[in-house]
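Fig. S4 source data, part A: sequence.
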Amino acid sequence: MDQFEVATQRAKRRQANQLVARSARYDRNSDRIIVELDTGTQFAFPPHRAQGLESAKASDLDTIEISPSGFGLHFPKLDADLWLPTLLQGIFGSKDWTAAQLGARGGRVKSKAKTRAARANGKLGGRPRTTKSQRKVAALRRAKRRASRRKVATLRRAKTRA
């Protein structure tokens, strides 16, 4: 059995066990992307919550294509793709993108405790300067990480060649 047949069988098993998109559209009134599943149920989410659609205009969301497997949603005007199984799990982007979104949200939080801490730190002269020895230690750590990454990459290349 060749790779294509194996992949085709795997896709058929996945389609039999998971929900699949039958249609998708953007509803301007509710500002939601609505995906109708093969079970007849609908799943809706706001586009600004999904990676690649954060700053999309309504006209960019008019055309939504569904992949042949029924697992992918493609937005041709934005060249953005979303994976339905992860959307149904509440995951709207990659780990890095999600972390950046959460970090940005956390950085905007204002509280009395945060304000007090910032004022107290300012009275002490602000953030302490790093010393020369601290900069050297940080540079050494970065160099070690780079060397380690190079070593891992070399080992992976050697494995793929073998």
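Fig. S4 source data, part B ends here. The two ends are 23 Å apart (CA to CA).
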